[in-house]
């Protein structure tokens, strides 16, 4: 019988610097180099700051369990194979997806600076958390980007009932001038699977249109939902997007695909995730100043659009997350008691100080 959600828990706000240092120390104590621990911890806390709690520091216990079971190699160093002047492949060697993807985007940016576009395929990787951090990496270099990844089965293809495709996010971005940059990061499902795990951790129910239980019925119980399947957004459209992620990330890279990627919460074997990263120089057809002015104009047109009934404000893609980040930088990142306890259990295993509350 599925575990029933607990009662909603007390929340505690954690300083982002304290959190990143805590996560970094756990990683180092689990045989991750300080340089790689800096990358992973920064990416996880970036997700927490943006309100993407499903892909933040709460992932640490599952990552560490994979290390303990030899399903993830924390000391792996990615290798690069240059295929053409503007195309390369990174082999993650079953290391952290964050590290391999960071190297991949760094390389894509470098190629784009010379050739206008850079494309990198990443193979034999692992979960890399929130896709938006890679978009942000490109934005810091004034680059447009595309970020794809595949993931473990959670979604049926349209018309099917078994888990086959992942709820793999599609992400992209473009820099701006005075306005907000464009940052799209979304799953092809109605809700990201991580939101189900988050609800389970926090003792919360879920909307009944997010998932089906193992018998095909709608459920508001996150434990039952995890035994069933996620539902695609837009019916066949969301299903087709999940297949697209598998083509570009799995089939193309030589990584696992067609339902064979291992769940990040399953420590029994390597995940073999694939990623697809593209960086594009935005001043190929005009100056960077003109491009940014046009982006600013688009931003204003979007947020100043006439509002439908009941809408107080229109947001640009990624803007809500940027506002959340500003708030959490000032006030701290909210964690439930059970989430802090879970992180502190990892601290106990490697004999480091508990997370400050």
Automatic annotation (TrEMBL):
This is Malate/L-lactate dehydrogenase. Signal peptide: none annotated. Pfam families: Ldh_2. Keywords: Oxidoreductase. GO terms for molecular function: oxidoreductase activity. It comes from Penicillium camemberti (strain FM 013). Belongs to the LDH2/MDH2 oxidoreductase family.
